[in-house]
Amino acid sequence: MLDIQREPSLLEAIQSRLRVMVALMIRELHTRFGRENLGYIWLFVEPAMLGLGVAVWQWLVQGSASMPGDLNKFSFFLVGYILFYLFRTLVGRSPTGLASNFQLMYHSRVTIEAVMWARTVLDTAAVAVCIAVFIVLIGITFGDWPANPLQMMLGVAFMGLLAHGIGLLFLAATAISPGITERLSHPFTYISIPFSGMFYMAWWLPGSFQEVLLWFPLLHIMEFVREGQFGRRVPATYDLTFLAGWIIAMNFLGLVALKAAKPRLET
Question: What pTM did the predictor assign?
Answer without folding.
Answer: 0.88
